[in-house]
Amino acid sequence: MAGSRSAVALLCVFAVAGVSSASFGMRTSSRPLGRSARAFADSLRGNDINLPTFLAAARAYCDLVGHFGSFAAPSSSEVRRCLAKIEQGIQKLAHSGGRRRVRIGRIQSMKALLQAEAAVEGLHKPKGMIADPSAAIGLLWARRALHYWVEAFDEHAHHSGSLLDELLIAYERSLAKFHGWIARRASMMASQAAPTWEDVRTNAKLAPSDAAMRDDMRNWANSVRKVVKCMHALHVKFDMEDTRKCV
Predict the structure, then answer these.
(1) 226 phi and psi, to 5 degrees?
(2) Do the beta carbons of residue 82 and residue 19 sit within 8 Å?
(3) Is residue 247 domain-resident?
(4) Residue 245 domain-assigned?
(5) How far is CA 172 from CA 11, 43, 186, 188, 246, in A?
(6) Is the pLDDT of residue 24 over 50?
């Protein structure tokens, strides 16, 4: 089933006219999460996503997540494979030949990429049944992984729960609805290896204090939520919002 190879590992990750971060009116720090927030915000172009900027922001975030602790490091490589599906999808479109051949230089946005894949006969099926591998599935699970961390950071920014509890809350708000029994069980087991937020803060050198980290998390969640919302709208627009559960 589409996305089944990526779904479990995505839990511990993130599980994929210009608008700058200043346009959001947000206050970001020069610390890691502040830089990440600005990078993702800069990928937003009105109602579209600039792909080169988004891919760079996502890879940099994978690097950051890799420092959160051993519970997160393995999954960052899985998300990199998810991002690779996006680039491979672009390459396939560029080398498809015929009238539908697309120059790589023309695919700079998520809208253009999904539109190009939608035009490939037999690649995706109606009612959101998208192929795996494809750029669309890579973007789908990258977006869901980002949504997971949006919810986790937002929860810690406003409450004082443990990392484990807040990861479970984030999971229910983001990935749970797309997981079957096996994936859910594996995700719950992976969460048990989570350290404390203090461990994450010091391991990744996120901020000098918990209060500063919470502030950075709040800003990151606010800006990346806008990116996630835009990506979701584009998947829906092109009938690529695959809601099938993995195993």
Answers:
(1) -65, -40
(2) no
(3) no
(4) no
(5) 11, 27, 14, 11, 15
(6) no
The CB density around residue 103, as the number of other CB atoms within 10 Å, is 8
Q: In sequence order, what DSSP letters do the residues of 94-112 get, joined into one string?
A: HTS-STT---GGG--BHHH
d(CA 54, CA 151): 19
Q: How far is Cα 198 from Cα 78, in angstroms, rounded to an integer? A: 25
Residues composing the chain: 247
Average pLDDT over residues 184-200: 86
Q: What share of the chain in percent tops pLDDT 70?
A: 83
In a domain, 243, yes or no: no
Sign of CA pseudo-dihedral 76, 82, 84, 86: negative
The token duo for 137 is 């599935």
Phi and psi at 125, nearest 5°, equal -105, 160
Q: What is the pTM of this model?
A: 0.87
Kindly state the greatest CA–CA separation across the chain: 57
Structural domain harbouring 18: 4-237
Domain tally, the chain: 1
Please, which residues bridge with residue 109 across strands? 50
As a whole number of angstroms, the distance between CA 191 and CA 168 comes to 7
**Cross-strand bridge partners of residue 49:** 44
Per-residue tokens: 62: 């994978």
Q: Residue 225 sits in a domain of what CATH number? A: 1.10.3520.10
Could you read off the pLDDT of 131-179 as tens digits, one per residue?
999 999 999 999 999 999 999 999 999 998 999 999 999 999 999 999 8
129 burial via Cβ count (<10 Å: 0-12, 13-18, 19+): middle
Residue 72 backbone phi and psi in degrees, to 5: -110, -25
Per the domain annotation, does 230 fall within a domain? Answer: yes
> Who contacts 29 (Cβ-Cβ below 8 Å, separation ≥6)?
207, 212, 215, 216, 219
